[in-house]
Amino acid sequence: MLAVQVHRYAGHAFKEMPCHAGWMLREAVDADVKSFDIKTVANAFDLNGTGAYCVPLVVDLRRSRMLLTDLYMAGKAFHNTVEGSYGNVSKACRAIARFTETRPTLSDLAVRHAAARGARLTGEREAAELTFGVTGCDYNAGDVGRILSELL
Predict the structure, then answer these.
(1) According to a count of CB atoms within 10 Å of the terminal CB, is the N or C end of the chain lower?
(2) Total structural domains in the chain?
């Protein structure tokens, strides 16, 4: 696991100032290339938590996948360091990895609820009494609050 960390070393919390993080993709890196070039930003996101540092994502190197965590960690108001946060981040990443192996997907939830109701699964939207999907469904993947309160 590779944990991406963004630290605030002193001053205001992330949510109290315009704060962004992300990564750039480049063909080559050398002394002739600027350290920041907006044209090479592949992905950027806002940081808006109150923690001393953020672990916005974890890269699972074994499975070649990225886990978005948006995790804000507590710490001192000043002098936060990567070395000082190693133990906490390591524990959090292990817990996140275990969580991703045990949590149901939206598809799992749909199948389980259909089985519990004695329903028949269909791939035809018009034939469905209850729909699961990304948008325009009874249960949309982005409506996490509703899914957590009604399906889990």
Answers:
(1) C
(2) 2
Q: Going by DSSP bridges, is the β-strand pair 2-7/53-60 parallel, antiparallel, or unpaired?
A: antiparallel
Residue pair 132/104 in contact (Cβ under 8 Å)? The answer is no
End-to-end CA distance of the chain: 28
Length of the chain equals 152
Residues 17 and 90 in one domain: yes
Q: Take residue 88 and report the two structure tokens written for it.
A: 């906490």
* Domain of 44, in residue numbers: 2-102
- Residue 102 host element (H or E): helix 82-102
Task: Clarify whether residues 95 and 143 are in a common domain.
Answer: no
